[in-house]
Write a structure and sequence with these properties.
The protein is α/β, with parallel strands linked by helices and 388 residues long. Helix content is 41%, strand content 16%.
């Protein structure tokens, strides 16, 4: 029985060329990049070359800096907490206000909750039934003491794309000194993005979403944006992220982006086409299903479907037995089901949310994989609806 991996939004397999590059680094570059002798200098060159490549990929030019971290989550924490703490240090008598959406990844939402506990004022803006940001509500939420807004580029559960350029421009018209951060973890590798087009103040992303290693991420910081470190120790990463750098992970980010850039148009066209084929075959072959999120403005690799009369956890168990890997729209923790905060924000009822499954395809998905998966999904749904 084949194994069909349809959870690319959770993580991607390591690209063979990235593995080859990282293996070379681990074998031949043993030095600490903070050391001044030859091995250290060689490691430092790898890091700085990778930094410049990432800036080039993002079209950052000389507009800002890349700070390497351990993950997308750490990058998000460093950006949001670091900017807020820097403001609080420089404006001790002013209570800052920060804004995000209700459908952000928990890396953003829990960072906001943490800052709430430190006395920071927060606002969470809602979305419509398709997951589109209520932009007028966001604009109305901006106040004199609003210092930061964090809006994701694309949603990890539904794939709904946020019009970052429009949101960024509307925000800056109202209050030009607001720091605008975006979680681009699900954007880089799945869509086109350029800092020339959307000159964000801060943005975060993660290597393992574009076929690089797990345990490495990056934060872009625009010149003039003050950030306080949240990990204290040495002087690494421009003094903003203490700890000896993960050279293999950093190089894997640059190599992963290089592989992506060299084949981006062909790869995205192929994946988008597969996503459309998958969605069409699901709706053609199975009755009683609903697409969650935006029907058009979404990442085509991401298909979030609710199956009437079927619990997602049970269907996922059956799919795993059939060799298909996917994710639920709800999360199981210690036997207790927690409904997806993203789908709840859409206003969907509990039954729709409890039956939601996210399928996400990527570089190594084939049309044969799609055909097998659709057959397995149909088999599992019919079996569970029949009570077997």
């Amino acid at each position: 029985m084949p194994r069909i991996y349809l959870d690319y939004n959770a993580t991607t397999p390591l690209d063979p060329s990235v593995l080859e590059e990282v293996t070379n680094i681990l074998k031949n570059y043993p030095g600490n990049p903070s050391s001044v002798y030859e091995e250290g200098r060689a490691a430092r060159i790898l890091i700085e070359d990778s930094r410049e490549y990432v800036k080039s990929f993002l079209d950052a030019g000389n507009s800002g800096e890349i700070i390497f971290t351990s993950s997308g989550s750490e990058s998000i924490n460093l950006g949001i907490i670091g900017a807020t703490y820097a403001y609080m240090q420089n404006n001790k008598k002013k209570n800052p206000h920060i804004i995000t959406s209700r459908v952000e990844h928990h890396a953003v939402l829990n960072t906001f909750k943490f800052l709430e506990s430190a006395g920071v004022e927060t606002t969470y803006v809602g979305v419509n039934e398709f997951g589109g940001l209520l932009l007028d509500d966001l604009k109305s939420a901006i106040k004199e003491n609003t210092i930061l807004i964090s809006i994701m580029g694309a949603n990890n559960e539904t794939g709904t794309i946020f019009p970052l350029k429009q949101i960024f421009e509307e925000v800056k018209k109202i209050k030009g000194d607001i720091i605008f951060h975006s979680d681009l973890v699900q954007v880089i590798g799945k869509s086109y993005f350029s800092l020339k087009d959307v000159p964000l103040d801060l943005c975060s992303f993660s290597g393992h979403k574009f076929y690089a290693l797990k345990g490495c991420g990056a934060l872009y910081i625009k010149k003039g944006v003050d950030i306080d470190p949240i990990i204290h120790g040495g002087h690494q990463e421009r003094g903003l992220r203490a700890g000896t750098e993960n050279i293999g992970g950093i190089v894997s980010i640059a190599k992963g982006l290089n592989v992506l850039k060299n084949n981006m148009h062909e790869e995205l066209d192929r994946i988008n086409n597969l996503g459309s084929i998958f969605l069409d075959k699901l709706f053609y072959g199975i009755e009683g299903i609903k697409l969650n999120g935006h029907p058009v403005n979404r990442l085509k690799n991401t298909i979030n479907i609710s199956f009437d009369g079927v619990k997602s956890e049970t269907l996922l168990f059956n799919l795993d037995l059939y060799g298909v890997s996917a994710s639920a729209g709800s999360a199981c923790n210690a036997g207790a089901v927690s409904l997806s905060h993203v789908l709840k924000a859409h206003g969907y009822d509990a039954k729709r949310i409890e039956s939601a499954i996210r399928f996400s395809i990527g570089r190594f998905t084939t049309e044969g994989d799609i055909d097998y998966a659709v057959s397995a999904i149909k088999k599992g749904v019919l079996k569970l609806r029949a009570g077997n």
